[in-house]
Amino acid sequence: MDENQTLTPNQIIIGEHLYNEAIRLMIQSAEHELLIFDQNLAHGDFSSIATYELLQQFLSQHIASHLSIILQDTTHLHHKCPRILSLLKTFGHKMTVHVTNQSAKHAKDCFILADGKHYIKRIHIDQARFKYAYDDVTTVKALKTRFDELKEAIEDIVSITPLGL
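The structure corresponding to this sequence follows.
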């Protein structure tokens, strides 16, 4: 069997289905912190019930757990991911969704970091090529630096409550 047909850590893997599966594994591995950078959440099965349930479990499991999402565009989130918006409504004290300004729109990769030690990185948004790993603090540290730089390019925050209420 071709190595790209199996989900193996620390290797370049190709395939949307495997990417979705690896994202679920990454969310399951998180205990306290999940950091997600994505263009719009259109890839990765974020609109599914399975992903919703994993994120809900993550946010419910520990009192100090936190989910932070940075997106370049929220159209898909608002139109196709009502469950994530529901999580934001329920867990607004443990979850943030930010939108970048124009200076960060050039980034074409996406990644998820779990607890400062696990990661999944999609190499380019237009291709289902990715790598994931557990206990790779060095790579996660570099991606966390990128995440922090993206935080500096935040233009807006996604809110599910009307202003003033």
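The radius of gyration is 15 Å.
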